[in-house]
Specification:
heterodimer; A: Elongation Factor Tu (Ef-tu), domain 3; Rossmann fold; Dihydroorotate dehydrogenase B (pyrk subunit), domain 3; 7-stranded mixed beta sheet; 6 helices; 20% helix; globular; B: alpha/beta; TIM Barrel; 4-stranded antiparallel beta sheet; 10 helices
Chain lengths: 264, 310
């Protein structure tokens, strides 16, 4: 982990909502684990002031490049999307704990909702490399909101897409699909990233079907990105059963669903 | 020209340079030590420590504003006993790093007891008394906005420690010098200026405040002019040294504070958007002194010049 200046190799608008940056940073590309993120700032401007956490979508160790997929949400992300090939970004990373990979022979479901699909591509690739056959469920509001479908479909895993309005793939929510799968075969590990209501629903399904290894990747407004400022915490049940807060940046962003207490 | 002198004596604490890290922005040092050698700092001011562990406020605890951030962490910390046992030993391995511990409490008795416990620990150079935290319901800001309460807290801390005591004041007052004079009279050995300014940000889509605590403390470059002004006003009135802070992101920012009357400076929010800010400021300060042919950094302190139109 360090601070680097990284050159933008590709800056590509993906529909109205999303953007993809490919940056060159071999140190991070060599060491980053699935589920880790980078803390990214463009230029030395004071507004926006803070870097933005972006998860690692995919990386290429041979080329030393990292793909960052994000949704255009505010000043920070819109600013990144306006940067051009050849521009430099300041990158702190890789940060966070990342997903812990499943044990041999385990059955895996990967669930992503909206831009929450971003960190799951690199995870799915890593799992495939280790001969797992994860089932991937991706959920979006509608057809227009779909992102990274091509990349996921090229993996050759079983891929189920659900849209809330049924304009593409299955109609409904990802957790409905998840429950269908769990009720017909034993699932050992769930990996999930997406909006909080989706993660809460996944948490419930995991609890109901007693999937102990359910890993949720959380999002939070961050300060330092390193674990020093205590700004990005989420509520958790601590080992002793007490309520406490953990830092999403340094103790997460991936947490076991049993410890996360949303809305507290 | 010889290398300029960067060392300062701040309230009896020997600092090899005048650049510290501000409380709450630098944890207990461990996170940033993964990036650079903490010995580069003049000193470290660690996150506020209270008598008992504190959970802090519910999230969201941070909101970005133009050139600034609002925070409402709420003093989450492991408590003084755990700090001494689990965090202080790490800092002790840096032989040339004065450790200043920020302390907070709900009652005057809390402050006194934390001060006492820290005074018996090895490896602490001074206490910074936080009478200015805007994010806790009891204590904090309430002590820092009333000269009499501020006096009582500092007096109680002084009675329970032999360490130098620095009072960290709140800018959320009508006249900062009134509080400054009061803590000086109570025996404070130095003053830290400024803590955060009370602020608020609203999400216009949900019509809700962004922070769960509704209000929070504003810091970052946005507050710098206010901090410089308060340092200057206070320097006119007190004879104890001032540790200037509030939006310092570059050596140039720090020099402004020193010219206004600060003997040393602290880097806070800048750590978040540039993790190397503090060592870069040390290097920049040295470069500035060389360029201007100034032999000693102490020559900057309060050296503000006025023209006939001032």
């Amino acid at each position: 982990m360090n601070v680097y200046q990284a050159e933008i190799l590709t800056s590509e608008k993906l529909g109205q909502l999303y953007h993809l940056l490919i940056i060159k940073q071999p140190d991070i590309a060599l060491t980053a684990k699935p589920g880790q993120f980078v803390y990214l700032k463009g230029g030395k401007g004071l507004d926006p002031l803070l870097p933005r956490p972006l998860s690692i979508h995919q990386l290429n160790q041979k080329e030393g490049t990292i793909q960052l997929l994000f949704q255009l949400k505010g000043k920070g992300t819109i600013g990144f999307s306006k940067m051009k090939t050849g521009d430099l970004l300041t990158v702190l990373g890789p940060l966070g704990n990342g997903f812990s990979l499943a044990d041999e022979g385990q059955n895996i479901v990967i669930i992503g909702g909206g831009i929450g699909v971003a960190p799951l591509l690199y995870l799915a690739e890593k799992l495939q490399e280790r001969h797992f056959k994860p089932i991937i469920i991706l959920g979006f509001r509608d057809k227009e909101n779909i992102v990274a479908y091509e990349s996921f479909s090229q993996l050759g895993c079983q891929l189920i897409v659900a849209t809330e309005d049924g304009s593409f793939g299955r109609r409904g929510r990802v957790t409905g699909v998840l429950e269908e799968i769990i009720s017909s075969e034993k699932i050992d590990v769930i990996y999930a990233c997406g909006p909080q209501p989706m993660l809460k629903a996944v948490q419930k399904v995991a609890e109901k079907w007693e999937v102990e290894n359910c890993q949720l990747s959380l999002e939070a407004r961050m300060g330092c990105g390193l674990g020093a400022c205590m700004a990005c915490v989420c509520g958790v049940r601590l080992e002793d059963g007490q309520f406490g807060y953990r830092r999403v940046c340094s103790e997460g962003p991936v947490f076991n669903s049993r410890e996360v207490l949303f809305d507290e | 020209m010889n290398e300029p002198n960067l060392a300062v004596d701040f309230a009896g604490i020997k600092l090899k340079n005048p650049v510290l890290t501000a409380s709450g922005t630098f944890g207990f040092g461990r996170e940033y030590s993964r990036l650079w050698d903490l010995n580069l700092l003049g000193g470290i001011i660690v996150k506020a420590v209270t008598l008992e562990p504190r959970l802090g406020n519910p999230p969201p605890r941070i909101a970005e504003t133009p050139a600034g951030i609002l925070n409402s962490i709420g003093l989450q910390n492991p408590g003084v006993v755990s700090f001494i046992r689990d965090y202080l030993p790490f800092l002790r391995q840096y032989e040339d790093l004065p450790v200043i511990v920020n302390i907070a409490g709900n009652t005057i008795e809390d402050y006194a007891r934390v001060a006492e416990k820290l005074s018996n620990a090895e490896g602490i150079s001074a206490l910074e008394v936080n009478i200015s935290c805007p994010n806790v319901k009891q204590g904090g800001l309430a002590f820092g906005t009333d000269p009499e309460s501020a006096y009582q807290v500092i007096e109680a801390v002084k009675a329970n420690t032999d360490l130098p005591v620095i009072a960290k004041l709140s800018p959320n007052v009508t006249d900062i010098t009134e509080i400054a004079l009061s803590v000086e009279e109570a025996g404070a050995d130095g003053i830290s200026l400024i803590n955060t300014l009370l602020g608020m940000a609203i999400d216009i889509n949900s019509w809700q405040p962004i922070l769960s605590n509704v209000v929070g403390g504003l810091s970052g470059p946005a507050v710098k002019p206010i901090a410089v002004r308060m340092v200057w006003q206070t320097a006119q009135k007190v004879s104890i040294p001032i540790l200037g802070m509030g939006g310092i992101a570059t050596a140039e920012d720090g020099i402004e504070f020193m010219l206004a009357g600060a003997k040393a400076i602290a880097v806070g929010t800048a750590n978040f958007f540039n993790p190397y800010a503090a060592p870069e400021i040390v290097a920049g300060l040295k470069r500035y002194l060389k360029e201007k042919n100034i032999e000693d950094v102490n020559q900057l302190c309060g050296a503000l010049r006025f023209t006939k139109n001032n």
